[in-house]
# Entry
Amino acid sequence: MSVFFKQNSKLERWINNNALWALLYMIVSTIANLYLTPYYIRQVGMELYGYIGLVNNVISFIDIISISLNSMAQRYISLSLFRKNTDKAYQYYSSCIKANGILIAIFSVPGIVAVCKISAFMNIAEGLIYEVQMLFGLMVANYFIAVFSNIFYIAAFVKNRLDLHAKVQIASLFFRICIVFFLFQNKGGHVWFISLGILFQNIVLCIFHFFYKKRCFSRLMYHRRNYSFSAIKLFVKDGIWASLNTIGNILNTGLDLWITNLMLTPVLTSVISIASSIGTIFYGITKTLTGSFYPEQMRAYSDGDIESLVKKLKRSMKFNSAVCVSIFSVFYFCGEEFLRLWMDSDSVGLLFRLSCVTLLSYIITGVVNPLYYVFTITSKLKVPFIVNIIGGILNVLGMYVLIKHTDLGAYAVVLTTMAINLIHLIDTPIYSACCLKVGIRTFYPTIIRHIMSGFCNLIILFIIDQFMFTEKGWWMLSAKVMIYLLLSIIICFLILPDSTERKYILQKIQKTTFRRLK
# Structure
């Protein structure tokens, strides 16, 4: 153990590896999802496919309690290992394992009842009930696997080897795709084949993290004598606000499809589900990239180096901003043509507009995403919960009123969420600065650069789009995407970093290029 805690001269290389492999995984995952979605729709139908997003939202309701345990357990175990307090880390580990086992046992009964009585809280056509029951049941099983395996992830986190996690995710993704393709080609078109593939993918991830944890921290094992009820109380006491914060997130984004399912048509529910899936893919990219910087941020906080932590947060914000702005800009100018080639559906126009609003909702908060982790590492989650819960209630009420009393229909669902997300550009930077005891304006220059970068991207690409790429087809669209993506990255590079950072990046690129040529 002592070898690990020495100053690691290769730490910076692993930090870059984490982000690069996380980005590669999200690119592979995004391409796979974009290809698979129309394939799934052809296999199971538009109406049945819409239940996937709806079931995922329902599953998020039962995730509330486990978040309070696992989010804080990871924090305390990581800090204990970083500070060389291994005995305490082992106690936290054993306590979390036992608590997760109890949670799974408790939730198994209501999970089975919910699967059997699913038509009581969802609007499902008579002939589709069995399909949705199987889908829901496998998603519940998948959730239990995820809860149980969360604690094993701690080894990759503490060792700052999240690049290994991304590599296994890529391998397990291909494994999942092979399973789903085999089932659809040989066993018919059942929607629950999709959730079965996800279940196998998560089992592979769980096995990898278990053995990697065993290799890195062989003594970090579950022992009944290491179990501490006071440790569980500590997790719950600090993590209760994380759980309550999840309620706010559900009110903000998780109830969209449920309300649509009850108040609008099944076709509109499916269209919104696909638009939400595109938004979820995009959010997954930013969340994965943000997470790749967490180990170094936790290390800086454990050392009490707040100045270094702020620098790392700003770097993560700029990295996230570049990804957010580039993806949205390219989608805005290429998305409708892509959707027409991708889906060949009468709903493409509506889907594109809903997707743009959904993506814009994530773009708004993309730059402040890294700051949410400040609340976890400082264990100050009460104020974010209050803001989130108020915003969530306003979101649900606004959605209901607009659907009930206006003709906005599906637009009401995505517009209210986007409007509420604007709040986080104000409260998150200010409260993050307060938690770290730095100036309240610390993070706003980065946010201003993010907004400027977005506007410049849209203006420049709009001008170019008036004169180029009038031809249609996959090859021309691919060329358009690559050119616009390159231009967007260049614009972000000119605006987001300051002069010192820009010079440093150029030097790193030159050194890397020279080394490869040599």
